[in-house]
Write a structure and sequence with these properties.
180 residues; alpha+beta; Immunoglobulin-like; 2 domains; three-stranded antiparallel beta sheet; 3 helices; 40% strand; elongated
């Protein structure tokens, strides 16, 4: 037996004694999906999104922890939420995050992280946060004047109709009194 055959035999014996289980490795693909109605939101609101998970490794059920963070341009965490879910092959989870009232208008980063036994995966997307939309007092004034004009038109249109009804009632009484 030459030296190369001896090495091959040793490697074969080691592999037989210590089987390598490659299927135990886990990797998870992570995706964030935000509906268009939540890509621009108002501070103080709650934002909803879908997390799609795809297990690329083991074909067994296991628990993962999902963490959602809202970050500013300096990567400071402004809001966070998390939950634990079970995954086997794939899962779609609806997540949510409360947008703090104190934020200023601008672009922010939504980051989702999934923690699993062999590591973690991350996905990010941007959202735009607007100021709360207060109604300008001028609009209340316009609504008041439009309502006032409509009320005036109703009175102007209704007055001749009321007069005709009153006249008809008077004629009806006169005819009724004459027939007695």
């Amino acid at each position: 037996m030459n030296k190369n055959q001896y090495k091959a035999l040793i490697i074969l014996v080691i592999l037989m004694l210590f089987p390598i289980v490659a299927s135990a490795q886990q990797a998870i693909n992570l995706e964030i999906v935000i509906p268009d109605s939540y890509k621009k939101t108002v501070k103080g609101n709650k934002i909803y999104f879908t997390i799609n998970l795809l297990n690329l490794g083991a074909n067994q059920r296991f628990d993962v922890t999902l963490k959602y963070d809202l970050l500013n341009k300096n990567n400071e965490i402004l809001a966070t939420n998390s939950k634990t879910v079970a995954i086997e092959t794939q899962a779609s989870i609806v997540g949510n995050l409360d947008i703090p009232d104190k934020l200023s208008q601008g672009e922010y980063l939504l980051r989702a992280t999934v923690f699993y036994p062999e590591g973690e995966s991350k996905a990010e997307t941007t959202i735009y946060i607007k100021e709360k939309e207060d109604i300008n007092p001028f609009y209340y004034l316009i609504i008041f004047f439009v309502a006032l004009v409509l009320l005036g038109l109703i009175i102007i249109i209704a007055k001749p109709i009321v007069s005709k009804i009153e006249l008809r009632n008077k004629i009806h009484k006169i005819v009724k009194n004459k027939n007695k």
